[in-house]
Write a structure and sequence with these properties.
Layout lengths: L2 E5 L3 H13 L3 E5 L2 H11 L3 E5 L7 H11 L4 E6 L4 H9 L4 E4 L4 H41 L10 H28 L2 H29 L7 E3 L2 H17 L2 E6 L7 E3 L1 H19 L9 E8 L6 E7 L6 H4 L17 H12 L3 E7 L3 E8 L4 H8 L1
Parallel strand pairs: 1-2, 1-3, 3-4, 4-5, 7-9
Antiparallel strand pairs: 6-8, 9-10, 10-12, 11-12
């Protein structure tokens, strides 16, 4: 049961809060003044403190400062009268988590406690990511090496671990900015720090999901769909991002294509990976002297149900790099990439019985080709059986 300390010089308020918080599942500690509250806190170390602002002797602001000196991670909710709102706002500068007004409204108190729990959970997750990430990577990598499909990982573990260490470093940077934001009550720092943390936690999640997907043997979830649907979805998804990078993203779709049996989610993933790579190629510092353009195209090709093309006029790829593109964990993006995206893309196309190829010249752009075979419902049903 979670502990919570309530500090208030009014016995009636203490009794009411004890009953209410007990009903919410808390183990409630109480103190009738600031010094007594500090003594209880030092002994019991509750993660949450609820303290009145206006108290004789040591007021709530002083209690807040003392608690933060003891443990900066303790979440403190300030209780104030309607006439003391300025004091409550001042308490936020000293890293109070929230404040509520008297008379205490049950719903408002419950909402404040919910926000406190969310903040505690977030801090715990950040601690977990920053303190245990490298150990977790080492353990998971050892397991992956034992898998037949990832036998080649043993040759590239160093590169993958380096990429994850970069993410861990970025996470630590984000948490530092967050802590400075809380310390200085600086909303700009808080926003910047949270963006950094959120972005890099997302990178970790995507990397873990990609690795799991790569190790799983699966049959495509075939559906009879129009082949232009995943192109339109990827175009709508990536257009704002491309525009933000001053890249012209267009689509060139063959509207006469018939419906095709394929896994729309898998092909969506493939096209998304290729368009993302094209955007990265077009934002390279060597390519900013010309108008960057990307085209996603669908067309009918002899011998195949459909052909997709992702064409860009970015930096291009030389022959040596082209020969390594679909190898395990090969990336041209340095610390920004792991190469998993193209591994996943090739795996999905192979599962479809299709083909993926690339044509490119250095400084002249790149074309990725995806071709999917003809299938009928009987073949799809037999493969599922």
């Amino acid at each position: 049961m979670d502990k919570i300390l309530v500090i208030d010089d009014e016995k009636a308020t203490l009794a009411m809060l004890r009953l209410l918080l007990s009903a919410y599942g808390y183990s409630v500690l109480t103190a009738e003044n600031g010094p007594a509250g500090i003594e209880v806190f030092k002994k019991e170390r509750p993660p949450v403190v609820l303290t009145d602002i206006k108290m004789p002797g040591m007021d709530g602001i002083q209690v807040l400062q003392k608690i933060k000196e003891e443990n900066r991670d303790t979440e403190v909710i300030m209780v104030t009268g309607h006439g003391d709102i300025e004091l409550a706002i001042q308490s936020l500068k000293f890293d109070a988590t929230d404040f509520i007004t008297k008379p205490i409204n049950n719903d408002i108190l419950e909402a404040a406690l919910k926000r406190v729990k969310e903040k505690i959970t977030l801090k715990a997750e950040l601690r977990k990511y920053t303190e245990n990430l490298e150990q977790l990577v080492e353990e998971k990598t050892k397991k992956l090496i034992d898998a037949e499909r990832l036998a080649a990982v043993g040759q590239t573990v160093a590169g993958l671990t380096h990429a994850i260490k970069n993410i861990a470093g970025a996470l630590r940077g984000g948490t530092f900015v967050l802590e400075k934001g809380f310390e200085l009550s600086n909303e700009k720092y808080l926003y910047q720090g949270w963006k950094m943390v959120k972005r890099n936690v997302g990178r970790i999640s995507e990397m873990a999901l990609d690795l799991l997907n790569y190790t799983k043997d699966r049959e495509p979830e075939y559906q009879l769909c129009h082949p232009n649907n995943p192109v339109q979805e990827v175009f709508n998804l990536m257009l704002p991002h491309a525009s933000a990078q001053s890249i012209t993203l267009t689509k060139d779709l063959d509207i006469d294509l018939p419906q095709v049996w394929f896994d729309p989610e898998g092909i969506h993933r493939c096209l998304l990976n290729l368009v993302t790579n094209s955007i990265d190629a077009c934002t390279d510092i060597n390519c900013t002297d010309k108008g960057a353009e990307i085209v996603i195209r669908s067309l009918k090709t002899e011998g195949w149900a459909v052909e997709y093309q992702v064409v860009d006029n970015g930096c291009g790829i030389d022959k040596e790099v082209r020969n390594k593109l679909f190898q395990s964990f090969f990336s041209t993006k340095g610390s920004r990439g792991t190469g998993i995206g193209l591994m996943i893309t090739k795996k999905i196309i192979d599962e479809h019985g299709g083909m993926i190829e690339v044509e490119s010249e250095k400084d002249k752009g790149t074309i990725f080709f995806i071709r999917l075979p003809e299938r009928d419902q009987q073949v799809v049903s037999e493969r599922h059986r």
